[in-house]
Amino acid sequence: MKAKFTYWEEDGWFLGYLNEFPDTWTQGKDLEDLRVHLLDLYKEFTAGTLQPDHEYHVDELVVA
């Protein structure tokens, strides 16, 4: 099983979040450290021990 995440580097830290839970960011000293923290978050969310701040919905926007 795989979970997508978004990350970027800022001020010497790697910041990121799980795409399913974009309100919950974490950080790491490097990309591997960030992956460890993201995996911990994923386990907490899927175990039900941590709840996202919002319920997310997906919709479409007509742009043309």
Task: Provide structural commentary.
There is one protein chain. The protein has 64 residues and is of the alpha+beta class. Helix content is 27%, strand content 25%. A hairpin with a 2-residue loop joins strand 1 and strand 2 (13-18). The longest helix has 17 residues, at 31-47. It is globular, with a radius of gyration of 14 Å. The chain starts with a strand and ends in a 17-residue tail after the last helix.
Amount of helix: 25-40%
Order of helices and strands: EEEH
The biggest sheet, with number of strands, parallel, antiparallel or mixed sense and barrel status, is: 3 strands, antiparallel
Strand arrangement across the biggest beta sheet:
1-2-3
Spans where pLDDT lies below 50 across 5 or more residues: none
Q: Which class best fits the helix and strand makeup?
A: alpha+beta
Gross morphology: globular
How much of the residues is beta strand, in percent?
A: 25-35%
Q: In angstroms, what is the radius of gyration?
A: 14 Å
Cα end-to-end separation = 36 Å
Number of strands: 3
What is the average per-residue confidence, as pLDDT, rounded to a whole number? Answer: 88
Number of continuous helical runs = 1
